[in-house]
């Protein structure tokens, strides 16, 4: 069978194209640092990378969720710690007012004024905002959850106008955490001590020089403080759980990121060697092909 010049030329071009494609492939790997640049490079590996990236996206969402909850819990813990300190101060004032027989009316009113200031602070605590949202309103985060009634400028009643909503946030696969606690469960629980009413009653008892009510205020402020401290403790437990979940999710992310790199990233020294080899092969093929084509044209001319 006679081999025509066109057949030889076509075979040479086809071989050169194969060598060029290989050269371009290695060049792209070195340029991008990636072993897989298009799905056809490794169909199975490409699908695994898609799955890994989806898992990583999910983990990053869990981390954003965890940060959101952590910031909320931290703000709550800070404000309630201040509230507990204020209630401890109110308890000390009640003890003094009940036991210091040397206090005159002016001094007792001065103590009542300080209790009134603590009451104002407590309402402000209940209406604390974090990132533009009220911490203790349940789902009602856009408006102050506690409204006050005043007589002659002093608070005489505090009403909760939020709701009982508790937002659950997923911080890991299947792991839900309560982000918030409605303010009425902290400051005015049905089975506990009404913190605001306790301070109002104590202040008014001091104004009226009602020693029996002042003594009752000692117990009430102590109970109110314990109530707030209990909530702080629960927030601390939640923080510990968040820390453990964060450690776990970070470990998962590291494992997936490492696997992603193993699948997608190229071994750069090896890739450079392959690129150089492919370049040498292509250059040699170009030279030999040019000689063969020149010789073939001469033979065709002579024949």
Structure, explained:
By secondary structure, this protein is mostly helical. The chain has a domain at 78-238: Up-down Bundle (f41 fragment of flagellin, N-terminal domain). Helix content is 71%, strand content 9%. The protein is built from 7 helices and 6 strands. The strands form 3 sheets. Strands 1-2 form a two-stranded antiparallel sheet. Strands 3-4 form a two-stranded antiparallel sheet. β1 (129-130) and β2 (133-134) form a beta hairpin. α2 packs antiparallel against α3, α2 (43-99) packs antiparallel against α6 (211-264) and α3 (105-126) runs antiparallel to α5 (195-208). The longest helix is centred in the first third of the chain and has 57 residues, at 43-99. The chain is rod-shaped. The two termini are 16 Å apart. The relative contact order is 0.15. The model has no long low-confidence stretch (mean pLDDT 86).
By DSSP, the count of extended strands is 6
Strand content: 5-15%
Question: What is the CATH level 1 assignment of the domain at 78-238?
Answer: Mainly Alpha
Oligomeric form: single chain
Q: Mind telling me the CATH superfamily name of the domain at 78-238?
A: f41 fragment of flagellin, N-terminal domain
Look up the CATH topology of the domain at 78-238: f41 fragment of flagellin, N-terminal domain
In what order do the strands lie side by side in the largest sheet? 1-2
- In angstroms, what is the radius of gyration? 38 Å
Broad structural category: mainly alpha
| Helical content class | over 70%
Characterize the biggest β-sheet.
2 strands, antiparallel
Q: Which geometry do the CA atoms define?
A: rod-shaped
Based on the structure given, which CATH architecture of the domain at 78-238 is correct? Answer: Up-down Bundle
Q: Mean of the pLDDT scores?
A: 86
Uncertain segments are none
Terminal residue distance: 16 Å
- Give the topology string: H per helix, E per strand: HHHEEEEEEHHHH
What's the number of helices? 7
């Amino acid at each position: 069978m006679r081999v025509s010049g066109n057949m030889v030329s076509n075979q040479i071009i086809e071989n050169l194209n194969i060598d060029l494609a290989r050269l371009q492939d290695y060049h792209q790997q070195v340029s991008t640092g990636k072993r897989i640049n298009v799905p056809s490079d490794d169909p199975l590996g490409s699908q695994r990378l898609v799955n890994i990236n989806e898992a990583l996206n999910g983990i990053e969402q869990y981390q954003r969720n965890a940060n959101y909850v952590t910031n909320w819990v931290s703000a709550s813990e800070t404000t309630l710690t201040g509230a507990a300190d204020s209630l401890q101060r109110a308890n000390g004032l009640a003890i003094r007012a009940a036991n210091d027989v040397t206090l005159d009316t002016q001094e007792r009113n001065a103590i009542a004024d300080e209790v009134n200031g603590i009451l104002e602070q407590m309402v402000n605590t209940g209406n604390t905002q974090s990132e533009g949202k009220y911490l203790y309103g349940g789902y009602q985060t856009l408006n102050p959850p506690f409204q006050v009634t005043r007589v002659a400028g002093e608070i005489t009643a505090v009403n909760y106008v939020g709701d009982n909503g508790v937002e659950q946030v997923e911080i890991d696969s299947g792991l839900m955490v309560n982000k918030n606690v409605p303010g009425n469960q902290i400051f005015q629980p049905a089975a506990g001590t009404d913190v605001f009413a306790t301070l109002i009653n104590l202040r008014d008892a001091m104004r009226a020089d009602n020693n029996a009510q002042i003594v009752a205020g000692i117990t009430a402020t102590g109970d109110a403080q314990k109530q707030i401290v209990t909530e702080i403790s629960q927030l601390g437990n939640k923080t510990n759980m968040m820390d453990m979940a964060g450690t776990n999710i970070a470990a998962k992310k590291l494992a997936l990121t490492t696997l992603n790199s193993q699948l997608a990233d190229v071994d750069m020294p090896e890739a450079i060697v392959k690129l150089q080899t492919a370049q040498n092969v292509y250059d040699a093929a170009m030279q030999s092909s040019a000689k063969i084509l020149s010789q073939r044209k001469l033979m065709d001319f002579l024949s």
